[in-house]
Amino acid sequence: MTDFDFKGYYKKIKEFEEKIENGDVKAMNNLANFYAKNDQTEQAEKYYKMAIQKGSKKAEKNLKILEKFPLMSDPMVMDDLAWDIPMEDAKGEIKIVIRGFKENGKDLNEYERNRMKGIVRKIWNKLYESADLEFIGYNDNTENKKLSFERAKRLAELFRESGLKDEMRIVKVLGKGSENSSDTNDTVEGRYNNRRVEIIGKNVVEKNFDLSLFNELKNQLEDE
């Protein structure tokens, strides 16, 4: 086993970045490829999108290949999303809980909205082939029950807008008001926790990724 050449790694990045500062669009795509081949998918995505904005067709093609990379390919992404990976229960169902709703509001705060986008693209779309999803909204005991449905409906819409693939079918959206409280309604923090949407996945088919194909995907990336 050979030691990783950190000096050479960062030297290569610096060379690309200097070209990018001078407006070299090809260098944007090629730096993205370099990051992708070194399992830095977040950085790769950033530079592919920069190149696409400048009209690079190869970057557009390469980004589609990157989206096929398995979730576990980037350790940094795994660290960021580890707490959001749903656990399967005894019935074979999976569940995550989204909080971050303002009092009497149906929209998420900015932090939770960004977290949700990561959940859609980097967990649900990558870990599962298909599933039937139920969005169940709740509110605290000071709010109107109708709002719990509006939250569930809005979150289901945001999942689709964030790129949820068609095989992840949204089969039910409903609101249960202040039923099944997850925390006390006697404190500000407790009421915040109760303003939530639970997303339940049923008939889940997990994706089986053949790691032997991983290098094949990397080899499909094209420099300019």
Q: Can you tell me the CATH topology of the largest domain?
A: 60s Ribosomal Protein L30, Chain: A
* Strands ordered across the widest β-sheet: 1-4-2-3
CATH class of the largest domain: Alpha Beta
Number of helices: 9
What is the fourth-level CATH superfamily of the largest domain?
Answer: OmpA-like domain
Total separate domains: 2
Q: Quote the beta fraction.
A: 15-25%
Main traits of this protein?
single chain, alpha+beta, 60s Ribosomal Protein L30, Chain: A, 2 domains, four-stranded mixed sheet, elongated
Question: What does this 3D model show about the protein?
Answer:
This protein has 224 residues and is an alpha+beta fold. A four-stranded mixed beta sheet has the order 1-4-2-3. Strand 2, helix 7 and strand 3 (168-175) form a beta-alpha-beta unit. It folds into two domains: 6-70, no CATH class; 78-206, OmpA-like domain (60s Ribosomal Protein L30, Chain: A). Helix content is 48%, strand content 16%. The longest helix is centred in the middle third of the chain and has 18 residues, at 110-127.
